């Protein structure tokens, strides 16, 4: 157990606060993750003083399923959020599921949400006592500062769980001032294209604005003397909003940042953890830190041992991710090891599914030859030789044993987690509504 100076049969009032910040469509596109032309000074400093996790992967490459998985420690096909939560798609977190806000509230925490959460219509139903809208960084930062000031003034001695859901860097880019002060560099998996300078500068400007907002919030923690007793977590829901990233199970679609910081504890000192971690592992890790019982249905595995240095723990040898619906039905599943990635397709398309917003990028038309091609049943990539996942070796005889092993792993995971795809196509909320209208059980509205 980490010694926070508070823990050891902790009373509720002595437990650390939690400040959880989540960005939208960011991937790992930060300076401290190697994006040399991105200015993310405050997040870089947070990483330099805290712990940066290099190989963290979302459970899903689209917003609502990814966020629901973080909040429940469960895969989308288990927590019930297999597509987007807003109309007309209307997936939602079922009542049977326990959101992190509800869990912490039941364990004596004040809970508040600033900005977006995107897993259910009403944040109060998942445990947030207060919700302050405004997800753009220019709104979220001052709202967070005000909430923290009010917290510091009140006489309620409960620790807080404050979740801040930023809109950045979701498209359209350019809601903030473009930034090219350090130049402009394309993500390594994108080809060069006309219009890239303008687009990348706009995206970098949004990241700079996001980083500035994070800096304001962290400075307010310092000003109010709250930093010493606050665990700070920063992550993103999934990969960047470009073709072959967001909405796909290639690494650019599921790789995410994770930075954690707490002064005078194991979450400090500029550590870099390279072992693979799944987003569903974050909840059990935090609960172990706080000495709160981990629910039996949580599927993630605590990675606290990575910080404490405890022996006799096994690091993850595999991570799993999935997509069932985004705007359309696109059932795919993957297993990834340090060396290989297997992606299975359960429906037939002649294109890589690209979110509508990502199609707005001029690079989409440049990549059409790469995106428009018949899908194989499965794609297998040798990540050491082919880190950009361009060369499918599933039918290469030299990889026959690797393919067999990876297929076994994926099948076992799907069986162990009772993946509904094993029983046939997964119906959407729209399908169920249409059947109810057809049968007269629901009015057409």
Q: If you had to describe this structure to a student in words, what would you say it looks like?
A:
By secondary structure, the chain is α/β, with parallel strands linked by helices. Strand 9 and strand 10 (329-336) form a beta hairpin. Helix 5 (137-153) packs parallel to helix 6. It has helices at residues 41-49, 63-72, 76-79, 100-106, 137-153, 196-223, 251-254, 282-289, 304-308, 363-366, 368-371, 400-416, 429-438; strands at 17-23, 51-57, 110-115, 130-132, 160-165, 230-236, 255-261, 271-278, 319-325, 329-336, 340-345, 378-382. Strands 4-3-5-1-6-7-2-8 form an eight-stranded mixed beta sheet, with helices on both faces. Strands 9-10-11-12 form a four-stranded antiparallel beta sheet, covered by helices on one side. It has 13 helices and twelve strands. The protein is 29% helix and 17% strand.
Topology:
Blueprint lengths: L16 E7 L17 H9 L1 E7 L5 H10 L3 H4 L20 H7 L3 E6 L14 E3 L4 H17 L6 E6 L30 H28 L6 E7 L14 H4 E7 L9 E8 L3 H8 L14 H5 L10 E7 L3 E8 L3 E6 L17 H4 L1 H4 L6 E5 L17 H17 L12 H10 L7
Parallel strand pairs: 1-5, 1-6, 2-8, 3-4, 3-5
Antiparallel strand pairs: 2-7, 6-7, 9-10, 10-11, 11-12
End-to-end C-alpha gap: 54 Å
Total number of helices: 13
Low-confidence stretches: 4-8
Q: What is the overall pLDDT average? A: 93
The succession of helices and strands, N to C, reads EHEHHHEEHEHEHEEHHEEEHHEHH
Structural class, by secondary structure, is alpha/beta
| Helix residue percentage | 25-40%
What is the overall shape? Answer: globular
**Fraction of residues in β-strands:** 15-25%
What assembly state would you assign to the polypeptide chains in this entry?
single chain
């Amino acid at each position: 157990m980490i010694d926070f100076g508070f823990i050891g049969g902790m009373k509720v009032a002595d437990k650390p606060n939690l400040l959880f910040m989540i960005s939208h469509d960011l991937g790992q596109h930060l300076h401290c993750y190697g994006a040399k032309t991105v200015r993310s000074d405050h997040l870089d400093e947070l990483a330099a003083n805290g712990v940066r996790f290099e190989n963290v992967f979302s459970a899903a490459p689209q917003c609502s399923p990814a966020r629901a998985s973080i909040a429940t420690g469960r895969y989308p096909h288990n927590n019930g959020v297999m597509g987007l939560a807003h109309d007309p798609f209307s997936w939602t977190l079922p009542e049977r599921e326990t959101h992190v806000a509800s869990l912490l509230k039941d364990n004596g925490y004040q809970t508040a949400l600033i900005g977006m959460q995107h897993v259910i219509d009403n944040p109060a139903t998942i445990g947030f006592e207060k919700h302050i809208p405004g997800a753009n960084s220019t709104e979220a930062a001052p709202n967070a500062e005000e909430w923290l000031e009010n917290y510091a003034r009140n006489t309620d001695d409960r620790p807080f769980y404050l979740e801040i859901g930023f809109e950045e860097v979701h498209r359209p880019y350019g809601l903030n001032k473009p930034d090219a002060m350090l130049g402009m560099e394309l993500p390594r998996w994108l080809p060069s294209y006309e219009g890239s300078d303008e687009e990348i500068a706009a995206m970098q400007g949004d990241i700079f604005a996001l980083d500035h907002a994070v800096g304001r919030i962290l400075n307010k923690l310092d000003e109010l003397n709250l930093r010493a007793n606050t665990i700070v977590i920063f992550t993103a829901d999934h990969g960047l909003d470009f073709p072959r990233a967001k909405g796909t199970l290639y690494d650019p679609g599921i790789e995410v940042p994770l930075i954690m910081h707490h002064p005078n504890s194991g979450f400090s000192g500029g550590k870099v953890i390279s072992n693979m971690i799944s987003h569903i592992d974050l909840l059990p890790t935090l609960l172990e830190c706080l000495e709160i019982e981990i629910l039996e249905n949580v599927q993630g595995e605590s990675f606290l041992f990575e910080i404490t240095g405890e022996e006799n723990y096994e690091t993850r040898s595999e991570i799993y991710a999935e997509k069932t619906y985004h705007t359309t039905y696109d059932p795919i599943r993957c297993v990834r090891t340090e060396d290989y990635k297997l992606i299975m397709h359960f429906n037939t398309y002649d294109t890589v599914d690209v979110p509508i917003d990502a199609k707005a990028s001029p690079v989409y038309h440049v990549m059409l030859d790469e995106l428009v091609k018949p899908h194989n049943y499965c794609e297998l990539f040798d990540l050491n030789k082919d880190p950009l996942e361009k060369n499918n070796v599933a039918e290469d005889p030299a990889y026959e044993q690797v393919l067999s092993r990876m297929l076994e792993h994926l099948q076992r995971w799907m069986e162990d987690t009772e993946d509904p795809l094993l029983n046939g196509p997964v119906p959407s909320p729209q399908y169920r509504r249409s059947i109810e209208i057809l049968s007269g059980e629901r009015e057409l509205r």
